[in-house]
Amino acid sequence: MSKYWDAPNQLRFGPETTHSNSLLPANHNLQKQILLRSISDKVQISSTLLPFYLFQVPSNLMEGVEASERVKRTTARLCSLCNQRKAALRRPKTLEQICRECFYNVFEDEIHRVIVENNLFKPGERIAIGASGGKDSTVLAYVLSELNKRHNYGLDLFLLSIDEGITGYRDDSLETVKRNELQYGLPLKIVSYKELYGWTMDEIVKAIGLKNNCTFCGVFRRQALDRGAALIQADKIVTGHNADDIAETVLLNILRGDIARLSRCTSITTGEDGPIPRCKPFKYTYEKEIVMYAYFKKLDYFSTECIYSPNAYRGFAREFIKDLERIRPRAILDMIRSGEDFRISTTTRMPEQGTCQRCGYISSQKLCKACVLLEGLNRGLPKLGIGRKKGGSGEDQEQSKRHLENKGLSLHGKHGNVEY
Amino acid sequence: MHLTLEFGGGLELLLKDSVKLHHVDVKPKSGEDNVTMRDLLTWVKGNLIKERPEMFIKGDSVRPGVLVLINDCDWELCGNLDAELEEKDVVVFISTLHGG
Amino acid sequence: MAVCGSACGSNCVPKDTEGVEGERLKRLSLEEESSVRRCTKCGEEEARKECNGLCAGCFRAYLYGKFKLAVTSNAMISPTDKVLVAFSGGPSSRVALEFIHEMQSKALACWDASNSQALPVFTVGVVFIEECAISNELSDQADVAIAQIRSIVSGLSPPSKDLHIVPIESLFSSDLRKLVGSINDATGQEDFVRHLRMVSLQRVAFEFGYSKLVLGLSASAIARHVICATVKGQGYSLPADVQYVDTRWKAPVVLPIRDCLEQELVTLCNLESLKHVQVLDRPCASINGLVSSFIVRLREDNPSREHTILRTAGKLKPFNFNKLSSNQYEHVPSRLRPKFQFIENGEPNSPEVLCPICASPLTATELASTRCAQQMKGLDIKEMEAFFWSCCQSCHFQILPKEETYMSCEGFFDLLPKPMVKRSLLRDEIKDYLLDDS
């Protein structure tokens, strides 16, 4: 399977990308050509098979523009792909400077390629796009509907939103999703915690306070997506998790010692054994590019943190990854690669999958987590199910997570990221 | 120097009344002709940010994860902190750290 | 004590028998009135805050216990070994040296007392690699450090230990400063120097006939390495570096204080006034520096975080070379040999292909890429090309020249120390390799 760093990928897309990672002046490009020729002189190497190291970005570009350049902004630099229009951004993945139009092309092409190479969809499938109204899912909905038309995927796309019942947060973001419904012409299904569980998050917070409410929300949301997808008879759910999110999850699972999650958090498709598989077409897409895309395309998205976890995005891990990206943008993809390559022993005990006796949802226990939490809520014992997990392996992570939450220094990523 | 500043992706919450768009007048430091992005950040921190400045600034630059565009061009292409601003420039700050 | 494996947190203290425990609790409750806190283990001495509630004596015993458990349960040191301790001057390797010394002294006392004297006692040497030639350290600073190291080693009680002070440039014929300077990436430079240091240590071990190399890597250092390797895309090879034993090298590398936290080691140095050399602070513009400060933040938040990271890495599957093979003990008397042997598991002994620079085992993808290039070139392949193609992706990115000209690649290759070059798949091996494969 080809991966993002493979040279062939970079070369397969049209002649203009042959020099795709050249951010150097023209004469340097020439030198590179000479090198390629000198190395491949005797045997005619087809360009798609050259080893990856010849396609690396010169590291003098690594240190950024700051030191090396005092170029006046007015002497605008040209796009390194089309060489015609003014460059508008620097791609974190390749450090190319490209114009808007070329950016749209490579951005969409890459996602198309990820979809094709990983066989994410089959013609005729009904796909539920988990839509929160935030940047990732908005861009995902837009790009998927474009690609579906352009490349004739033959998919039935739906927007699927969860209404947790958080006044002033979710009701606003749902308005965004409703506008998206009209803008992209995608049918929207909203399922609410209230109708599924009989409780809104506002009510839950009233009952249990601000501590641990994220546990409820996370567990409920995961199920709600599956149930909503089942209601609209979807074959698959796609979510907007991007490369930064996945790198962060890899890191968090290392910090928590959660080897089971570590082994599956980098899979592009999960839950294939369950009722509805989920996949992440943005697995290799940088957050920066998603935001740039949304900005340039003037996509309508909603960006406010959840009022019940106001500082979740302050997590150490997230900050570390952003700092890292500044020093070495490639590190995000490297972390994903590490996650894919970890040698996880097959003897590591993975939790056995069964179904919940009460609601039939997949569960490794007699009752699924949502039912346990719900029972606690309904019996007025909201602490039920939050404490120590049965069966050793998860215990320690729960504990350490709680430890952090208690101190208000959540290791959580952004809202909802932690469930995989 | 007249500049238009726009804050998005949740950064507007750090400003008074969560206003996204600001038309401002920034003077060059005494003895200098130009306003650089470095100067502008200092100015924004001192004059616009009302709460949690650490969400916007880290060290002498923007916090990693905040994107900056000068006239719709990635500031990484303009020299980052050393980029010199011109009359009527539009500078956009977008946080990538919120929601998703 | 055996329960305190690598997995246990720093607060794990071996439980005494119940009677003693009851006694202790009684005493503790009495103590509460007087403000002096007693050691939670022996209940006798005054507990110290920096020692996890233990007294100084029990704290030392606790750390030595971890060390000894690591050594014995992994058969790190056999009686016939000649052990070389890599001493950087820092607190971690200082404690490693101290504990190895103590273990040797005890073994010697046993030997003196024993009638048969069948088991010889291992010998110990110390090595310090002086890196002025490739770092920004000033030579007079290094001279001070070397003088201190000499006094530390000569101050140890008998048996005396050979001390090898080796300037790194004396081991290689090429211009190391130029070589390191030609690496553009700050992180790549740091990592390359680390790889050079390992090659140097191995050279010294080889020249003086040492059979084991002891590194003073603490749990904290390994936790940092786990995150660094993950961030550099080395997830596959990571488990190779975090085990107690690593036989990729001629002199197998062992990590006896792998389970001790850096802070515990610093505390011990302070308590026992173990002199250690101020390790020079290097600038931290690299990813390694960023990871270090991240780990410090995590530690402040939760002191057992480093252990958790280590435990995660411990769950990854080690490589075949992460254990000592039984034939390394053939000179041990046969009745004692089983003690030092591991049960061979049934796994096929497929040799890993290692990156010639960092010695990481290559992933299947990397191998495929290497193979593909080599197949195309066939036997025409130049030594330099073979070398570049057999490096791992991480080294490609952060160490090898990015100026994609033949000249700079060749220039870099010419400066590389021979042991590294030799590690790469050379033409003949490639031929075998290709044949094997088909």
TrEMBL record, chain A:
Domain (tRNA(Ile)-lysidine/2-thiocytidine synthase N-terminal): residue spans on this chain: 127-310
Main location: cytoplasm
Enzyme nomenclature, EC number: 2.7.7.-
Subcellular localization(s) per the UniProt record: Cytoplasm
Entry superkingdom: Eukaryota
Biological or metabolic pathway of the protein: tRNA modification; 5-methoxycarbonylmethyl-2-thiouridine-tRNA biosynthesis
Pfam families: ATP_bind_3, zn-ribbon_14
Residue ranges annotated for the Cytoplasmic tRNA 2-thiolation protein 1 C-terminal domain, each copy included: 354-384
Stated family: Belongs to the TtcA family. CTU1/NCS6/ATPBD3 subfamily.
GO MF terms held by the record: nucleotidyltransferase activity; tRNA binding
Enzyme class: transferase
Protein known as: Cytoplasmic tRNA 2-thiolation protein 1
Role according to the record: Plays a central role in 2-thiolation of mcm(5)S(2)U at tRNA wobble positions of tRNA(Lys), tRNA(Glu) and tRNA(Gln). Directly binds tRNAs and probably acts by catalyzing adenylation of tRNAs, an intermediate required for 2-thiolation. It is unclear whether it acts as a sulfurtransferase that transfers sulfur from thiocarboxylated URM1 onto the uridine of tRNAs at wobble position.
Any single GO CC term annotated in Swiss-Prot or TrEMBL for this entry: mitochondrion
A Gene Ontology BP annotation from the UniProt entry: protein urmylation
Segment forming the signal sequence: none
Keywords: Cytoplasm, RNA-binding, Transferase, tRNA processing, tRNA-binding
UniProtKB/TrEMBL annotation, chain B:
Description of post-translational modifications: C-terminal thiocarboxylation occurs in 2 steps, it is first acyl-adenylated (-COAMP) via the hesA/moeB/thiF part of the MOCS3/UBA4 homolog, then thiocarboxylated (-COSH) via the rhodanese domain of the MOCS3/UBA4 homolog.
Database matches in Gene3D superfamilies: 3.10.20.30
The protein's annotated pathway: tRNA modification; 5-methoxycarbonylmethyl-2-thiouridine-tRNA biosynthesis
Family in the record: Belongs to the URM1 family.
Compartment annotation: Cytoplasm
Keywords, in A-Z order: Cytoplasm, Isopeptide bond, tRNA processing, Ubl conjugation pathway
A Gene Ontology biological process term: protein urmylation
PANTHER family for the chain: RURM1 PROTEIN
Its job: Acts as a sulfur carrier required for 2-thiolation of mcm(5)S(2)U at tRNA wobble positions of cytosolic tRNA(Lys), tRNA(Glu) and tRNA(Gln). Serves as sulfur donor in tRNA 2-thiolation reaction by being thiocarboxylated (-COSH) at its C-terminus by MOCS3. The sulfur is then transferred to tRNA to form 2-thiolation of mcm(5)S(2)U. Also acts as a ubiquitin-like protein (UBL) that is covalently conjugated via an isopeptide bond to lysine residues of target proteins.
Top-level taxonomic group: Eukaryota
Modified residues (1-thioglycine): 100
An annotated GO cellular component: cytosol
One Pfam short name: Urm1
Protein name: Ubiquitin-related modifier 1 homolog
Naturally occurring in which organism (per UniProt): Rhynchospora breviuscula
Residues in cross-link Glycyl lysine isopeptide (Gly-Lys) (interchain with K-? in acceptor proteins): 100
TrEMBL record, chain C:
Major location (coarse): cytoplasm
Keywords per UniProt: Cytoplasm, tRNA processing
Listed GO MF terms: nucleotidyltransferase activity; sulfurtransferase activity; tRNA binding
One cellular component term from this protein's GO annotations in UniProt: cytosol
Pathway assigned in UniProt: tRNA modification; 5-methoxycarbonylmethyl-2-thiouridine-tRNA biosynthesis
InterPro entries to which the protein is assigned, alphabetical: CTU2, Rossmann-like_a/b/a_fold
Compartments, record wording: Cytoplasm
Biological process according to GO: protein urmylation; tRNA wobble position uridine thiolation
Signal peptide: none
HAMAP family with a match to the protein in the record: CTU2 (MF_03054)
Similarity annotation: Belongs to the CTU2/NCS2 family.
Protein role: Plays a central role in 2-thiolation of mcm(5)S(2)U at tRNA wobble positions of tRNA(Lys), tRNA(Glu) and tRNA(Gln). May act by forming a heterodimer with NCS6/CTU1 that ligates sulfur from thiocarboxylated URM1 onto the uridine of tRNAs at wobble position.
Name this protein carries in UniProt: Cytoplasmic tRNA 2-thiolation protein 2
